[in-house]
Amino acid sequence: MKDENILDDETLSLNDAKEFLAEVHSNLQAFLEGNNMSEDYEMYPAEDVVYIMLRGFFNSKECLKLLTIVQFFELTDIAEYQSLNRWFLSGLVFGIDMDIVKNIIDTKIVEEEKSKISSLVTSY
To answer: Which one of 11, 12, 24, 31 is least enclosed by Cβ atoms within 10 Å?
Structure first.
């Protein structure tokens, strides 16, 4: 485990991590089925699916939560929970380029802040 938590204001228990990853897995399954990739999906690079999931399914805080879970918990403790997909998890842990992930999260943060500002401006 690392010394600092990405989400300073939120402490994650192993159970919280498992529940969140179960939601991630459910979203992954829905995404794969929605794109007719549910059969033989492991032929696709897991890291590409990770990038798509981060871009399309999560806000910046959820992306950070996912990265925190990957950094702070043992993959084996999490992967055994509700048959979470080891292909996806291993792609998340070993295959991703952190610069790409950082850019995805930075872009999401900017978009979320623009949205907040826009809603404030239009409410006046």
So the answer is: 11
Q: At 106, which amino acid appears?
A: D
Q: What is the pLDDT of residue 2?
A: 40
The three-class DSSP label of residue 20 is helix
C-beta of residue 107 within 8 angstroms of C-beta of residue 59: no
* Residue of 82, 48, 77, 53 lying closest to 65 (CA atoms): 53
- Determine the number of helices (DSSP H) and then strands (DSSP E) in the chain: 6, 0
Radius of gyration of the chain (CA): 16
Q: What is the pLDDT of residues 59-72, one digit of tens each?
A: 999 888 888 888 88
d(CA 87, CA 62): 20
Residue 80: name the closest of 72, 89, 69, 70 by CA: 89
* Residues 6+ positions from 65 with CB-CB distance below 8 Å: 6, 7, 10, 12, 20
3-state secondary structure of 74: coil
Q: What is the pTM of this model?
A: 0.71
